[in-house]
Amino acid sequence: MNNTEITDRLTGIFREVFDDPKLELHDAMTASDIAGWDSVAMINIIVGVEERFQIRLRTREVDGLKTVGDLIALIAEKTA
Amino acid sequence: MHAPNLFWLPSLGEDLAREQWNERFAQVADKQSDWEGLMALANHDLDFVRTMRLDRLLARKFPEPPSGLAVKPVRLAVLGSSTLDHLTASIRVAALRRGIWATVHVGEYGSYLQDLSEANDALETFAPTAFLLVLDSHHIVGYLPRDADQATAERALSEVAEGLLPRCWQAVKERYGCPILQTSFLPVLPQLMGSTERLLPSSPAGFIQKLNATLPALCATYGAIPVDLAGAASQAGVAAWYDPSLWFRAKQEVAPRAAPAFGELVGRSLAGMTGRTSKCLVLDLDNTLWGGVIGDDGLSGIELGQGSAVEEAYLAIQDYALRLSKRGVILAVCSKNDEANAREPFRDHPEMLLREKDIACFVANWNDKAENIRTIAESLKIGLDSLVFADDNPFERARVREALPMVNVPELPGEPALIPETLAAAGYFDLTTLSAEDFARSGQCQANLHRQVLQESATDLDSYLANLDMKLAYGPFNAANLQRITQLVNKSNQFNLTTRRYAQEELAAIMQDDASAGIWFRLTDRFGDNGLIAVVIVRDLPDTALEIDTWLMSCRVLGRGVEEATLEVIVAEAQKRGKTSLRGVYRPSAKNNMVADLYDRLGFSLAEQKDNGEKIYTLPLETWHKKSVHIEYLKET
Predict the structure, then answer these.
(1) How far apart are CA B511 and CA B513, in angstroms?
(2) Which of B53, B56, B257 sits opposite A47 (nearest CB)?
(3) A43·B250 Cβ contact <8 A
(4) Taking CB atoms and an 8 Å limit, are A16 and B48 in contact across chains?
(5) Which of B65, B297, B514, B562 could form an S-S bond across to B101 if both were Cys, CB 3.0 to 4.6 Å?
(6) Domain B280-463 has CATH 3.40.50.1000
(7) What SUPFAM superfamilies does UniProt report for this protein, alphabetically (chain B) (predicted)?
């Protein structure tokens, strides 16, 4: 799966999690850029990513995420 | 490890299904208050993200229960020893799925004992109507010392089973006067010696196993309601429910991905407590209770009994239905069939487990199934929402879901062997307690309903058909489908106007013969391809008429306008040949009574009736009027 496909699918998840049909992702985005991105939303995102991409993320991997770009790179690595 | 999904509910795996769900979601979000719309959204196989999303919409639209809701709202206090906040959305959505409005209060992390043993302002303000106690296995195993011997282990077990649990349950009853739900314990602890684990007194896994084994009886003694979390987890596997890394990260014993399944389990108990458990299983017949089509294949042709894998699988479905009936679930039949054909296996098939006496309400006719199901509910005097409709045909399932959204319609798998498991997993008939009345119920309802001619609610069926996206492809017989045509010509009994059987060579000869034509028809709709569903053979007569020598159709597609569409194709064929009228023949057989008046219905006039019952009809083309049907034509050459 290439980064565009990953970003598209991830955008779908973010739009559902934040109930915002217009939300767009960019690599440098962090939790402080989206209103309501708290720990509950984070669980929601991680579970969504695991289910929709059929991958498992490790504790350390999740802890190491800083930006949306990091998450996309992690998904790319896991789905390669 | 895959999430334990709700596989008996319509899946959102396909793009189209997801788009439709999202569209419906947007519609419900736009409306002021659409409780039924929310219920319909909840009745899908939702994953965690969609469950959370639907729950947020539910909270926005219904912060208070909808007015006039027949079921009492549920105010559920959830107490436990680990993180539970991620489970509440799924509980509310599972309640919604059953038409129950629920609100959930979660106690402070890990403080269930304090919450229950002393006055608690938050709980008292919340005013719960029910409690759910969820204790995680790591916590419970804390009662078992690492070096426990037999006596210590037994003491630890009774400390939990005779001390901790009953103390909590009694506190709930005394302080709040509420029913209490108690989950069983997830077997998440690693074994120390494998198959002989239970022999080791200090084994945490063995401790949990023993505790789970005593829980049902314990609950019965103290009046608690068991919620068998461990049993449910054993279906998809504990690894699908429990993720050790999440346990350490967030102290979630039930992983968020399993939350929808957890909510569903609790929802069933809430349904049982509020009288929302289903009471009646409505069964389709052909390809649901037996393989094949009784009207076409006959008593000896249907697949049922001991002998082949498929036959045994259908027998197992009947066995499951019969066992349900023995514990109080009412059985009904809703089948598109001539009634005499439908009843024949119940009377005369040696392998049938289900007999007429087991069926409280037997409806077999050619009407819309949604209307028939309404009749069944009325005649049994139970609500439509207490019916479960089991049918192998996706067209019928979608029709009933749309016309009667309160009826439970599980997605039956194409494999008959999986049907009992699917019905069991759906848990429609799960009870929280077993009363004498449950056993008596099926006996009371054996007043058989006789066949009724029903008023079809033409309008809403029409709009359903309009949205079916039906496409009728047709064309002259060709080598590629000749074999399938031969099969149909020699097998179809019910919708078959002349029951003339032809060998493959005779049908091939029609392809070469200018004075006759063979036309096949194939129907697709939004559920997929129904396959080759009709065959027509016409022959030039010496005069100006075209005779319909053969017209047969699969009963699966009856009542969708295909008959009218087929006639239109026949009319076009006659016009192409310069004919001015059609001649239709009905030759009665033991099985084709359902089309005895087809030509009358289509506007033909009776020209001649012979002594043997054969009827000759005529239709001058100038008197024929095109009927509007919701079918697109695809002509192939």
Answers:
(1) 6
(2) B257
(3) yes
(4) no
(5) B65
(6) yes
(7) HAD-like
Record: contact A17-B86, CB cut-off 8 A: no
Does the model's ipTM exceed the 0.90 cut?
A: no
Please report residues of B whose CB lies closer than 8 A to that of A17: 49, 52-53
Task: Calculate mean pLDDT across residues B86-91.
Answer: 96
Per CATH, is B469-635 categorized as 3.40.630.30?
yes
* Closest residue, chain B, to A48 (C-alpha): B49
Question: Residue B581 and residue B277: Cα distance in Å, rounded?
Answer: 58
The beta-carbon neighbor of A47 closest among B53, B248, B256 is B256
As a whole number, mean pLDDT of residues B207-230 equals: 95
Ramachandran sector of residue B473 (left: φ over 0; alpha: ψ -120 to 50; beta: rest): beta
Q: How much is the average pLDDT of A60-73?
A: 91
Q: CA of B56 to nearest chain A CA: how many angstroms apart?
A: 9
Using CA atoms, how far residue A46 sits from A79, B13, B269, B620, in Å, is 15, 19, 30, 69
At the top level of CATH, which class does the domain B73-273 belong to?
alpha beta
Give CA separation, B216 vs A48, B76, B137, B162, B516, in Å: 35, 21, 17, 13, 73
* B261, B3 contact by CB (below 8 A): yes
A15 contacts: CB under 8 Å, gap ≥ 6: A21, A22, A23
Question: Residue B248 is nearest to which of A16, A48, A59, comparing CB atoms?
Answer: A59
Instruction: Please write the tens of the pLDDT for every residue from B108-155.
Output: 888 899 899 888 999 999 999 999 999 999 999 999 999 999 999 999
User: Is the Cβ pair A48, B249 closer than 8 Å?
Assistant: no
CATH of domain A3-79: 1.10.1200.10
Which residues from chain B sit within 8 angstroms of residue A50, using beta carbons?
257
Give pLDDT, residue B436: 56
A16 contacts in B (CB within 8 Å)?
49-50, 53
